[in-house]
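Predict the 3D structure for this chain.
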Amino acid sequence: MQIYLIEEVKEKLIFRLTEEDAHHCAVVMRHRIGDIIWGTDGKGNAYELEIINIQKKAVFAKQIKYYPELGEPKLATVLAFALLKNVSRMETLIEKAVELGVTHIFPFIAKRSEKKNLSLERASKIAIAAIKQCKRSKIPEIQFYSSLQELLSSHCKWKIAKLLGFCEAETYIGQYHETLQKEACFFIIGPEGDFNSEEIELARQYQAQTFSLGSTRFRAETAGIHVLSINHYLKNFN
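Done. Predicted structure below.
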């Protein structure tokens, strides 16, 4: 069942769906008063709700049950990726990253990035649509950085395993399986053409470990999805 984005109204335990989601709920999905739906405020609070009022541009529902952190991972996963030239592929990466449990998304400009800007509003809309589709309750934080240096220096005090993907790295990502399984991870994926030697050295200065994805050369967005899939599997494997 899809989850809708909600806003709390003044009356306790009563919620209003956002205008866009109200339209989808009432017009597209044809929900009626008394139907049970799911809602989230995008901050980690999710609810089972009963629809109590449907208006032209609004749907109101009352809380039945509260589910804190619904669908959210226990450990943080950060995806930092260099801007890609192809916007649709970059948007696919954002969507799939959210579905695979990423909690922070940090686009940045690498030395070999051809694209130099990103619509954070568009990225946020994609992330919101993805959490609703996969029934998560928290919208990932999205922050843009103008360089790898700015990205790394901004998070140098985070207690998190930093792992940078690099085609020529000697260590396969699978060799970090214990780290991926037990620790919060900060993955850094380069642009088309990969990172240059200065960026690799910079990352190592910030205690980032490098990894490869084997002998197959992936597109940048595929590399990101691939490593996040491995991370998701290991963190959820019992």
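The chain is about 30% helix and 25% strand.
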